[in-house]
Amino acid sequence: MSDDIPIQVRFEPLDARWVGDITELVTDPEVLRFTRVPEPVPDGFVRSWIARYETGGLDGTREGFAAVSADGGFLGLALAPHMDAEAGEMELGYIVARASRGRGVASAILSTLTRWALDERGAQRIYLIIDVQNAASERVAQRCGYHREGVMRSIHVKQDRRADAALWSRLRSDPDPA
Q1: How many domains does the chain have?
Q2: What is the pLDDT of residue 163?
């Protein structure tokens, strides 16, 4: 795809129709390497994960979307795993399906998710937690106007391994990236 043609992405609420796509997504070694998805993925994980996002959407504590192309193809996930309306703060995350990588999809998802957080949810501060070994995701954050605040050392435990993660943030007052 040409670099001058932006990827069009739209969001659809997470629900049971996405189980197959998400199951494929969470069995991808790259997804497992850089996310908090448990390894091995427990039986029933995808359905319970979707249910947590459905419940969170109702009580305002989290929100999850399937990111889809103009023709309805699954591109990945757009997530707000933590939302604090009173503080005006939320964590965002994105996971791109293997077939959609390397085409600007991650930037399109994060850009769209950021606009949603700022415009529709009134967020004042948005943050991303990115494994320090995930250089591609850090480039996406930078392209989308996020600022690297620093490294949270040994913040995450997965399969008895501790990992460092960078904290990236964007404020409502930050300028939109060019």
Answers
A1: 1
A2: 87
What DSSP assignment string belongs to 71-134?
T--EEEEEEEEEEETTTTEEEEEEEE-GGGTTTTHHHHHHHHHHHIIIIIS--SEEEEEEETT-
Domain assignment present for 127: yes
**Roughly what angle, to the nearest 10 degrees, separates helices 135-143 and 105-115?**
50
Q: Which two tokens stand for residue 33?
A: 């390497």
What's 123's domain CATH number?
3.40.630.30
DSSP class of residue 6? Answer: P
Task: Give the pLDDT mean for 55-67.
Answer: 96
Domain-embedded: residue 59: yes
Would you give the end-to-end CA distance of the chain in angstroms?
A: 20
Residue 3 domain flag: no
Which has more confidence, 62 or 35?
62
Percent residues over pLDDT 70 in the chain? 96
Angle of helix 19-26 versus helix 45-59 axis, rounded to 10: 120
What percent of the chain stands above pLDDT 90? 83
Q: Is residue 66 part of a domain?
A: yes
What are the CA-CA distances from residue 4 to residues 1, 75, 138, 176 (Å)? 9, 19, 22, 18
- How confident is the model at residue 93, as a pLDDT? 97
What residues make up the domain containing 18? 10-171
Token reading at 28: 């991808």
